[in-house]
Amino acid sequence: MKGRDMSTTYMEPAGVRTLLAARAPLCPKCGHVLYEVDREVRRGSVVLWYECSGPECEDRWFEKRPAKVG
User: Fold this and answer.
1) Domain span including residue 48
2) Distance CA 8, CA 36 (A)
3) What is the pLDDT of residues 3-51, one digit of tens each?
4) How many domains does the chain have?
5) Cα(17)–Cα(3) distance, rounded to whole angstroms?
6) What is the SS3 string spanning the chain?
7) Which of 41, 42, 50, 64 shows the greatest Cβ crowding within 10 Å of its Cβ?
8) C-alpha triplet 14, 61, 17: angle, nearest 5°
9) How many CB atoms lie within 10 A of CB 19?
10) Full-model pTM
């Protein structure tokens, strides 16, 4: 029975994906990891540009964050 034997650690595929998503954003279109390709500051915000690592996905995405003050 899964999870009853405390001497064995079970790795769930869903848990692995959750850990990966916490470290790197995922493409909303295909689900592959996005990697940062550019960063710029605009009007007090930092804009991060990402490209998808998927083999057939050529999309670019951006994330806008407030710039840290102080």
Assistant:
1) 25-66
2) 37
3) 554 454 444 444 444 444 457 788 988 989 999 999 999 888 999 999 9
4) 1
5) 19
6) CCCCCCCCCCCCHHHHHHHHHHHCCECCCCCCEEEEEEEEEECCEEEEEEEECCCCCCCEEEEEEECCCC
7) 50
8) 10
9) 8
10) 0.60
